[in-house]
Amino acid sequence: MAGGVLREFLRNLSMCFAVGAAGGLIYALALWAMGRYGLSYRLGVDIAPYLSNAYLYQRIVWGGICGLVLLLPFQRAWFSRGLILSLIPAGVLLLVVLPMRGYGPGALGLGTLTPLVVWLACAAGGVMASGLLRAQGK
Predict the structure, then answer these.
(1) In a 10 Å sphere around its CB, with 0-12 CB exposed, 13-18 middle and 19+ buried, how is residue 135 labelled?
(2) Burial level of 84, CB count in 10 A (0-12/13-18/19+)?
(3) What are the tens digits of pLDDT across the range 54-95?
(4) Would you list the domain boundaries of the chain?
(5) Cβ count near 86 (within 10 Å)
(6) Do residues 27 and 130 make contact, with C-beta atoms less than 8 angstroms apart?
(7) Could you tell me the pTM of the whole model?
(8) What keywords sit in the KW lines (predicted)?
């Protein structure tokens, strides 16, 4: 009995990491596309990452780690679950990571609408991860 519970937990853990990694890829591509096609610039946000292996790798791994939040018993429709849970990595980026890099609280040093751009990219990844999880019956 205990072996079955552990096996199911490890299966769920692996699945959440995998869909989170896919979500991290979508987040990275969404942020890159917003910079590449000028949406960030038109919103007054100085974010236009260069698409490289290092850029993708870091976001895919962190996406997998953030995907572990999908283990929480959050009973909502998959789309709203993805949108709401994407607030967690967006918050970490805006309140911890980017301020530590010198962009100020909310990374407003990159532009007034930086929180919107970051959340939109995180939301794209969150919805993708949540949708993939739903496709697996979770």
Answers:
(1) exposed
(2) middle
(3) 999 999 999 999 999 888 887 778 899 899 889 999 999 999
(4) 2-135
(5) 27
(6) no
(7) 0.90
(8) Membrane, Transmembrane, Transmembrane helix
